[in-house]
């Protein structure tokens, strides 16, 4: 029935700031960008590998609790071949990155950081 994940949708509070974060810092490819006048909303379709990330803005989005962990999306994880340069790039841009940990079940390294709205993101090393 299901073949793959097509996209993940995110709502941000500052569209320009989040667009720069995901496109310029994280390196996602901008596929298309539209302004929907009737909703006063920007929407960017971004690509990473075969998956798309939809980035939405709305005039006054509700705050979603992240800590303590709430029901719903826990975090979004990105695969990287080498964790160290990715962490250095984030830290050089002023992004706080948690200490690197080891997954006790796979022995792979990973770490967490947040997007500009506090959405928890993970870098998971898959060499």
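^ structure tokens above, recovered residues below v
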């Amino acid at each position: 029935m299901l073949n793959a994940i097509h996209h993940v949708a995110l709502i941000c509070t500052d569209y320009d700031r989040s667009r720069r974060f995901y496109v310029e810092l994280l390196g996602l490819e901008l596929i298309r960008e539209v302004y929907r006048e009737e909703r006063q909303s920007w929407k960017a379709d971004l690509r990473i590998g075969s998956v798309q990330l939809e980035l939405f803005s709305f005039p006054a989005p509700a705050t979603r609790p992240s800590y303590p962990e709430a029901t719903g999306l826990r975090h979004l994880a990105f695969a990287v071949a080498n964790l160290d340069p990715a962490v250095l790039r984030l830290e050089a841009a002023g992004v706080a990155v948690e200490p690197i940990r080891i997954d006790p079940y796979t022995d792979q390294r990973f770490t967490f950081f947040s997007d500009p709205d506090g959405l928890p993101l993970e870098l998971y090393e898959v060499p």
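Strands lie at 7-12, 29-36, 41-48, 51-57, 76-80, 101-102, 109-114, 120-125.
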